[in-house]
Amino acid sequence: MHLSKFYANLRFNENSPMRNLIFLIILLFSRNLSSQQISEYSSVPLLNFPKIKSSITMPVKIPLSEIGNMINNSVPTLIFQDDSFTDNNNDQFKVKVWKTRPIRLVGGTKQNLLIEVPLKIWVEKGIGTFGFYNYQNTTFETVMYFNTQLTFNNNWTMVTKTEPMGYKWVTKPVLDYGRIKVPITTLIESSLKKQQADFSKTIDEMMLEQLNFQQYAIMAWNQFSEPFEVSEEYKTWLKITPISVNITPLIFYGNRIDANIGIDTYSETFTGRKPASSPLIKTIANFNSVQQLPNNFILQTTVNIPFTEATAIAEKTFLGKEFDFREGKSKVKITSIKVYGEKDRIMIEAATEGAIEGTSFISGIPVYDEMKRKIVLSDTQFKLKTKNILYKTATFLFQGKIVKMIEDEYGIPTAELEDSSKKSIEETFNKEYYKGLKMNGKVFKLKPSQIILNPVGITAIIDTQAQLELSVKGL
Fold first, then answer.
1. Each residue of 304-333: pLDDT tens digit?
2. Distance between CA 57 and CA 429 in Å, rounded?
3. Can you give the pLDDT at residue 37?
4. Which of 174, 188, 361, 475 has a CA that sits 20 to 30 A from residue 280's CA?
5. How far apart are CA 412 and CA 374, in angstroms?
6. Is 406 exposed, middle or buried (0-12, 13-18, 19+ CB in 10 A)?
7. φ/ψ of residue 9, rounded to 5
8. Strand ordering across the sheet containing 331-342
C-alpha cells in the first residue's frame, strides 16, 4: 500500500451529537493500519499502543439572548387572566396581562442577570353599590424588573434565586367615566406585586429544569464506555476514557456568559479483537472549579506505522541503488533491504553485492526531524557480516558511506500526515454538529513529539497545539 493511501485513512465517528459536542476532538487522529499488517496482527489476540493522556480546553460562550429565548418560549403571551367580577371579595374587577415584546436579559456585575419584562394590562372595573354597577375598562403598560443570581455548583447543577426589583409605569391606569376620572393605580399595584413575586418563582423553576447539566454530562461520559471500531478492515479500535472536567467561574458580560471547560482524557488504540468496555455510570464526579485554563491546548494521540510500510519506503529509496565508496574503484549495489525493530532501535538490514558482498545492519533510535518532516534515525550503529573483507580501510570507508546515505536519505515522511491532519482537524473544528451548538477552532502546530517501537511497527505520538471555542446559538 502506498504511504499516501496509508496516511489518508482518517476516520471520524459523527453519529452521536453529544459525543461530537464534548469529546469528538479526541478522534481526529484515529488512523487505520496498512492492509499488509493484517496477517501480522491475526495471531495477536489484542495489541494495544501507548495510553495517551490529553487535556482539551474549550471556551464556551452563551449569548444571553439564548437564555432569553428559553424564557420567552416558556412564558405565554397571555401571562395572567382574571375573568370574574365577584371573586376576591366581590372586587368587581377583571384583568388580563400580556407580554408586549420579548423578555430581555442583561448581564450584571456579580454573577447575576437583570431581567426586564414589558407588559400590557387590560382591566375592567365596576363602580357602584347595591348590585348596580357602571363598568369601564382601560389599557395601560408597565415594565417589571427582576434580579436573578446564578450559582453553578460543581455537581453540575445550576441554582438560581430570582427577586423582584420593582416596576415602572409606561402609562398609568385610569378609568374614564366622563366627568369622573378614577385612578386605579393602588388597586393594580397590589396585584402587580403579587404577580411579580409569583413570576420570580416561575423563572427559578424554568432555570432549574432547563439548566440541569448533570444529565448531559452523564450522557456524554457514557457515550465512550463502548470502544468503537476505527476500521473493520484493519481491525483497529479506539477507546476514549474521560478522566475529569475542570470549569472556570462564569463570567457575565452585558450580552453573554463565558466559561472555560477543560477535559482530561485517556485515548488508547487497539488492534486485534475488541477491547473490554468501560462500565456505565449513573452519577458523574463533581467537576473541578479552577480559576483559569489556558486558551490553547495540546492534544496528544497516536499513529501506528507497520514495519511492512517502513520496509516499503526503504525498498523504494535504496533497492537496486549503486554507490561507490572509494574513488570509482569500489562499487556496491543494494540487492535487498528490510526494516524491523530491535528493543528501542530501528534495524535496517541491507544486503549488498559488488566490492563488498554481505549484509549490513544499521540501527538507530527513531526521532522526528522537523526540518525534513520525517521520522529518521539518530545515534546510528553499524555492523557488517561478510566473507570477502580484504582490507580494514575498505570496511571503514564502506561503513561511512552507507551509514551517511541511510542517515541522509532514509526517513518515514510525515509531511502529508501533518498537512492532511491539520486540514481535517480544522474542518472538524468549524462545524455545527448539533443544532445550536457550533464549534470554531484553529490548529497552530502539529507534529510527532515521541517515537516508540512496538512489536510490529512504529508508534508516533502526535502533539497538536490548537484552539477551540464552543458557541451556543439557536437552540
1. 788 988 999 999 999 999 988 877 678 889
2. 13
3. 37
4. 475
5. 5
6. buried
7. -80, 70
8. 322-324, 331-342, 345-354, 358-369, 374-386, 412-413
Residue 225 near residue 280 (C-beta atoms within 8 A): yes
- Of 263, 235, 274, 180, nearest to 41 (Cα)? 235
φ, ψ of residue 411 in degrees (nearest 5): 180, 150
**Diameter of the chain by CA atoms?**
136
What's the grid cell of residue 127? 363602580
**The predicted structure's pLDDT at residue 233:** 58
For 315-436, strand residue ranges (E) read 322-324, 331-342, 345-354, 358-369, 374-386, 412-413, 432-434
Distance between CA atoms of 67 and 69, rounded to whole angstroms?
5
Contact 153, 159 (CB under 8 A): yes
Euclidean distance between CA atoms 150 and 161, whole angstroms: 7
The model's pTM is: 0.68
429-459 confidence digits (pLDDT tens):
887 766 777 888 899 888 888 898 988 888 8
Measured CA to CA, the distance from residue 423 to residue 358 in angstroms comes to 46
pLDDT at residue 165 tops 90: yes
Query: Quick one: cell of 227?
Result: 470502544
Tens-place pLDDT, residues 59-114: 888 888 888 887 788 778 888 788 888 777 777 778 888 999 998 999 988 889 99
457-472 and 52-63 beta bridge pairing: parallel
CA angle 458, 464, 465 (to 5 degrees): 155
Asked whether the beta carbons of 183 and 172 are under 8 A apart, the reply is yes
Terminal-residue alpha carbon distance, the chain = 45
Question: Which set of grid coordinates corresponds to residue 428?
Answer: 472538524
Dihedral of the alpha carbons of 432, 433, 439, 440, in degrees to the nearest 10: -60
Note the helical H segments in 130-213: 185-210
CA distances from 232 to 32, 225, 272, 318 (A): 9, 19, 10, 34
- Give the dihedral sign, CA 367/370/371/372: positive
